[in-house]
Amino acid sequence: MYKRRAIVWFRQDLRLHDNEALLEALKVADEVIPVYVFDERIFLGKTSYGFPKTGKYRAKFIIESIHDLRESLHKLGSSLIVRVGKPEEEIFKIAQQIKSSWVFCNRERTREEVQVQDALEQNLWSIGQEIRFSRGKMLYYTADLPFPVPHTPDVFTQFRKEVERYVKVREPLPVPNEDFSALTVKIESGEIPELEDFGWEHFEPDPRAVIDFKGGETEALNRLNFYLWESDLVKNYKETRNGLIGGDYSSKFSPWLAQGCLSPKKIYQELRKFEVERGGNESTYWLFFELMWRDFFRFMGKKHGDKIFFKGGTRGEADPRWHDDWNLFNQWAEGRTGVPFIDANMREINATGFMSNRGRQNVASFLVKDLKVNWQMGAEYFESLLIDYDVTSNWGNWNYIAGVGSDPREDRYFNILSQARRYDPQGEYVKLWIPELSDLPVDKVHQPDQLSYAEQEELHVKIGADYPKAMVATSKWR
Predict the structure, then answer these.
(1) Quick check: helix, strand or coil at residue 57?
(2) How many CB atoms lie within 10 A of CB 469?
(3) pLDDT tens-digit series, residues 97-140
(4) Are 69 and 13 in contact (CB under 8 A)?
């Protein structure tokens, strides 16, 4: 008997809840074959500046997410077919082998991802099969916007006001409630690779990390439940979101959102439910506000395309003073600038793959505005290291800080000393990540370059030996 078969190609949508591609496939096909391909170009390739495209922290998180997804599918009588290679080739081979009719997947909009889905589509056409695209990453559906994507406002505040006024967030789609039909075709499941297969050694999480991020939908939903229902932490989000130490100062949803282990519509649904049952306030709204920022950057990526990756950004206005200075860049990247607040943040991302939003803004501003280093180098470094790397959020934020993107202010510049004193008033964060400064008093910890020789002797720290000389004198920011 003829069976209509569909492949569901999981990409950055590693979940069963609110997965439109999966539900559409289950509606039209007799047999559904879930597939994930570790793209060798992403897991083994380099960025244009030579950084690993996927560092060890994110690689580990994704591997864990695939294990979790496979286990969840097993519970529904299915499995997850895993391959390593090029998706446009590996999925094409599977489609030929099982004689499927369709490949369902969630559409991506940025260059590398589009090239892969276009190549797969071309391959499938050659054998009379088609690819069907769904939406899986956003809070809002493009079709629901009060304007076409090319007319999306370039300033977030205008975008937010128009969207909030006219558009409702749709309900998240449910988890499939019936077991998958048994396959009548034989196919190898494939081994999920180990971290070592991508050139990384096994590592233990740094004990100073904000939390021990574990990949997968199960952990994502646990975190959502904890942050809202178990702890009520969301009630204070607006006041605490600029914290620097520990797991409680912000939601930490971003790694799960980036890989699609958690749907933004699911967060919104739980947030609204929380407001009804326990009361809403500025903080619960502010979490929604941050989800809107995430959508905004994705719409900027859709509207402007590759411009978000160009030196001049969406404005097309690169600062002629920006240069690819590897000496300055390496001191910044390695946390050797001699400016403690910058160094502490860079040491954290190097050791954990994570950095607070406040830290990201400060280190980006310092690299671009104080050192005059090309912001693209910083964006690619973050792409390599971040456990929560999301294409449009990362590049959109770097556009924003560099002043080549969506920002009504002409010159967004961070006073690093003022920021350090405001967000790390006791120097606890600096001392956590720069133990060589742990004996410095509060009034000195953010400005060790201003210590006299006598003070250095008294405090047992030698600037230029125990801790680097400042690349930019902290007296600049007084």
Answers:
(1) helix
(2) 13
(3) 999 999 999 999 899 999 999 999 999 999 999 999 998 789 99
(4) no
By CB atoms closer than 10 A (0-12, 13-18, 19+), residue 183 is middle
Residues 6 or more apart in contact with residue 374 via CB below 8 angstroms: 311, 322, 323, 324
Please spell the DSSP secondary structure of 18-45, one letter per residue: T-HHHHHHHHH-SEEEEEEEEEHHHHS-
How far apart are alpha carbons 104 and 34 in whole angstroms?
A: 9
Q: What is the CA radius of gyration of the chain?
A: 24
pTM of this prediction exceeds 0.85: yes
The two structure tokens encoding residue 47: 């960025």
CB-based contacts of 66, cutoff 8 Å, min separation 6: 14, 36, 80, 82, 192, 215
**Helix pair angle (391-402, 282-304), 10° resolution:** 90
The DSSP secondary-structure symbol of 373 reads B
**Of the candidates 3, 415, 407, 48, the residue with the CA atom closest to the CA atom of residue 182:** 3
Task: Report the chain's terminal Cα–Cα distance, integer Å.
Answer: 79
Q: What are the tens digits of pLDDT across the range 239-260?
A: 999 999 999 999 999 999 999 9
